[in-house]
Amino acid sequence: MHVDNEEVYPNRLVTTRTVEIGGLTKAQLIQKLKQSDIRMNEYAERLLTDDRFTTSDTRYSLQTVEVTVGDLGFRDGATTDQIYQRAAEFGLALCPLELGPYIRLQYADQPEGDSGDGVQRNQAPSGSITLASRRLTDDDDFPKGFYLRRMNDALWLRGYRADHLHVWNPYDHFIFVKPEPRS
């Protein structure tokens, strides 16, 4: 596959954010989401309440990078593993799953996506941003991670399911972490 390096990350303009995470217990984090009127689907609730979902006692900052699948050089789409591998080649890392609720709380000006009336099943919804994170389990029936969405002026933290064969579209957005430079 030929990739024109001028058309892929890091040579493309991408969105970066600094996100503060940690310092809350799981129960406190869930309460903060509710107090902030963040809506969640059943998959997000399953992720948050699972014993394998953990939170950090210590507050810290992460630099995130939002890229499309196309920004990573996949003009025809790619599987999750292909996306994660290419991002790693560009020096991007997977996000801790805990980042999902925190970035949702802090990214309140996400543009509106469409209402989903015309969305096909098994595709990322219009305007959504998927958090690139390690799966808690290989069980295909368990949610794989979080995505962010604004729909009908409501902020959503949603969980999703996708098996290893799922092909993401080139315009689907992902958030990765840009590791701190080592000194």
TrEMBL record:
UniProt GO molecular function: helicase activity
Spans annotated as Disordered: 110-129
Polar residues composition-biased segments: 120-129
Superkingdom classification of source: Bacteria
Keyword annotations: ATP-binding, Helicase, Hydrolase, Nucleotide-binding
UniProt-recorded name of the protein: Helicase
Organism of this sequence: Paenibacillus campinasensis
